[in-house]
Each structure stands twice: as C-alpha cells, then as structure tokens.
Amino acid sequence: MRTSRPSLRVRLTALLAGAAAAGALLVAGTSAAHAAGTPLRDLAAARGKVIGTAVTGSRLTGAYADIAGGQFGSLTPGNAMKWGSVEPSRGTYDWAEADQIVAFAQAHDQQVRGHTLVWHSQNPTWLTNGNWTPAQLSGLLQDHITTEVTRYKGRLAAWDVVNEPFNEDGTYRSTIWYDNLGPDYIAQALTWAHAADPSARLYINDYNVEGVNAKSTALYNLVKSLKDRGVPIDGVGLQAHLILGQVPSTLQQNIQRFADLGVDVAVTELDIRMQLPATDAKLAQQRADYRSVVSACAAVTRCAGVTVWGFTDSDSWIPDVFDGYGAATPYDENYAPKPAYDGIAEALGASVPPPPTDGCTAVYAVTGQWDSGFTGQVTIACSGGSLASWTANWSFGAGQRIAQAWNADCTQSGAAVTCSNASWNGTVPDGGSVTFGFNASWSGSNPVPSVTLG
Ligand code: G3I
C-alpha cells in the first residue's frame, strides 16, 4: 500500500528526533550509522526494500513514536489485529488499537502488514471454548476474515493470513483449524482474504523456516501446491526469531527457492536474542548477525523487506518467554541505537565504519622464505577487547604478491592487501587469538608491513 506523503511537520519531527538520538549516541558511541543520519527506511527504499517494525499502539508517543515513524517504512501491529484483540466477546469488536496503528502509518507514509488472521494462539476464549461443528467453525472463520480484511481494505500492503501452520518435522500442526477443517483451511482462508481485499499481498508466516530444513520444505511444498491450484498466495513470511551467532547458513538460498516459486518473501519478525548480560562482544556479534539477515534479503529481488519484532529492547517479547535472554532488538531500552542498527544500515548500503577494534592487535611474521617465495602468518589477538568479525589490511612495500591464503579470504589490489575472516574464525574473544597464513612471492627484498585491523 502507498499512502499520501506525511505532513512537513511530521517529517521534521522525525528528523529532529533522529538528530536528538544521534547526539545521544555520539556520547555513547554505539551507532555510527545512526549518527550519519539517513533513516533506515530511506536506505531500504533506495534498494527497493522496506524495513519495518512491530509496534504496540499504546506506546506510539514521544521518542517511541519518533523512531517508529522516522526510521521504519512499515508497521506491523504486534498484537492489535489478532482475533482475541479485535473480537474479545462474540460480536463485540474493539478496533481501537488497530485503527490507531493504521492511522499512524498513514500519517507517516508507512505501509502496514496485517498480523494475523488464522492462528492457534491469542484467539478469544468464546471461540476456543465453544463446541462448534466443522461447518460452524468454517463459517466463523470466514466471517472473521471477511470482517477484518474488509475493514482495512485498500490500506494494508500485506496480510499474514495464516500463522505458524507447521510442526518442526513438517507435518501440520494440530490446531482448532486443522483438527476440524483439515489442511484446506489454509487455501480457504487465503481465498476469503483475497475476496475481501484483492490488493493486499497474502502471506503464510512461520518460524524456524529461515534455513532449508524439514519445516521450510513443507512450507515450500504447500506454497507450490497452492500456486498450482490457483489459490491466491503472494508471499512467505520468515519470522526469524533467531539466537545470537546462529543465522542459518542457508538463509539466502532458502529465500531464493521461495522466490523462484513466484512468491514474495519477507522477513517478518526478526529479533536476535542473547544470554544476558549483553557484552560488547555479544553486541558486535549481533551487529554481524543483523547484517547477515538483512543482506540475505537485499540480495534477492523478490525479498520485499525485513520487519523487526519490536525496535527497542523495552518492547520485546523475549525476556518474558526466554528466561535470562534479551537485548534482541536494534535499540536498547532507552532508545539508544545499538551496533545491530549499524549492521542493518550497512546491509542496506550505508557506509558505516567497522566495529571498534580496541584491545585487539595484528602481528605479521614471515615464517619461511625461499628463492622467490615466502610463507607469512598474521596473528590477531585481543586483550581488553574482542571481535565478532575482522579484516586485516596492509600494504606490501616491495612488490610482494599473495598467491594463496588459508584461514582467511585475502584479496590484493596493487600493493594493498585485505584479508577477512573465514566463516569459522571471525570471533576473537577477550584473551584469545586467531591466526591465518598465506604464501606469497617476493624479489629483491621482503620488508615486513604493519597490519591494521578493521
Ligand atoms: O494485554 C495484556 C495486559 O492487559 C496484561 O496486563 C498482561 C499481563 O501479562 O498481558 C497482556 O497481554 C500480553 C500481550 O502479549 C500484550 O502485551 C500477553 O500476556 C502476552 O502473552 C502477549 O505476548 C505476545 C505473543 O505473541 C503471544 O504469543 C507478544 O506480545 C507478541 O509479540 C507475540 O508475537 C508473536 C507473533 O504474533 C507470532 N510469532 C511469534 C511472536 C512471538 O511470540
């Protein structure tokens, strides 16, 4: 959905909020990209992507509203559009929070993702406690979908129509819908939603389907068969509730295989949780993880964008559900942007200085030399600091050329050499070290360069 441009006042407020937050971060030194000032939504738009956040309606004032409106191009109501929220008693509707979020989005020139129409959770008790026949349940579901989708017709970019239909092994989850209506409740829900708003992009959304695995393959097979049958399915939502350091290596490949089926893909609920307390090393790893996820989406044309599941640690479901875990979002509890913000910005094309390398050094040594060649080794060691990823840079002073490297990816352009960590040795803990090596050619002399870390 495209809405009218926001008023100048709204845009100025967002910009001023960004500037104020940038001032705060310069002191804290947490996010260089935020200080640079281009909002994430503009970075994303320049790449044809949308960056979104889940929001809580009651919090949409002050700094929370400034960031939600200024930095993000899409909003997802975190709870406000679920069945239990909108129809707490049968026939009695409460649209207040959902309406508020949609109005806020329109005022800030944002898209809205509707979330969610058919789920096994957060349903009203009058529904789950009722003793319905399958025909009655089907009628109730059709009414619910038709009523809610019609209310926002033409104003929502997308709907998460069906949420979390699969078990981890790829079988269908036993729910009130599956148990009573069979697997075709999914096709019916999509068909009813499409009838109510033909312009909304209709998604199936699930978790633990980010990489290639049994669950994502079941989702893939379902989408394929729905497409073959002509059922209106437009997209697949990968929730992406991830754990620090565990971004699936097959994420981009998985996004691509869905795209190749002819549907859009969106990362719909991204957060990356860590065991508390957060440390500089964990936050640096989180920056790298956020960058990986957003980069994977940026690399696939049909990936529509990425939504974070709450932009601030003060509005995240993680601490309530995973004991001892938190700090999962790109802003801390006081709305200061975290290194994760830089990871997102970088993946969206911003030029961001590399993470600080304080407390870490790189030492270059020649470990063997013969007529025309030599073996070199670089050891990166940290004491009083740590790294989640690294790049070692130097300039050869006498025409040396690298032929082959191990435990790093090295490139040479003229005299300038850049070596980046391999996938398995990016982390250098406080008190730890990693070493990589290379063979190179030399003639005349073989002076030792000084290495800088980035
Ligand atoms: O609104 C009541 C409040 O009145 C009461 O005082 C308070 C006491 O616990 O509870 C409040 O409701 C909570 C609600 O969030 C709103 O904050 C519920 O207890 C709580 O269970 C509910 O959690 C939501 C969760 O879905 C339920 O499964 C999270 O906020 C929401 O972020 C989360 O979102 C889901 C997605 O929809 C689907 N994917 C997974 C994701 C995380 O679970």
From TrEMBL:
Keyword Hydrolase: yes
Catalytic activity: Endohydrolysis of (1->4)-beta-D-xylosidic linkages in xylans
UniProt keyword annotations, A-Z: Carbohydrate metabolism, Glycosidase, Hydrolase, Polysaccharide degradation, Signal, Xylan degradation
KW GTP-binding (keyword) present: no
Enzyme Commission designation: 3.2.1.8
Catalytic residues (UniProt): E269 (nucleophile)
Signal peptide location: 1-35
PROSITE patterns: CBM2, CBM2_A, GH10_1, GH10_2
Name of protein: Beta-xylanase
Gene3D superfamilies: 2.60.40.290, Glycosidases
SMART domains: CBD_II (SM00637), Glyco_10 (SM00633)
Family per similarity comment: Belongs to the glycosyl hydrolase 10 (cellulase F) family.
Organism of provenance: Streptomyces caeni
Domain GH10: 37-347
Enzyme class: hydrolase
Domain CBM2: 353-454
Highest taxon above the source species: Bacteria
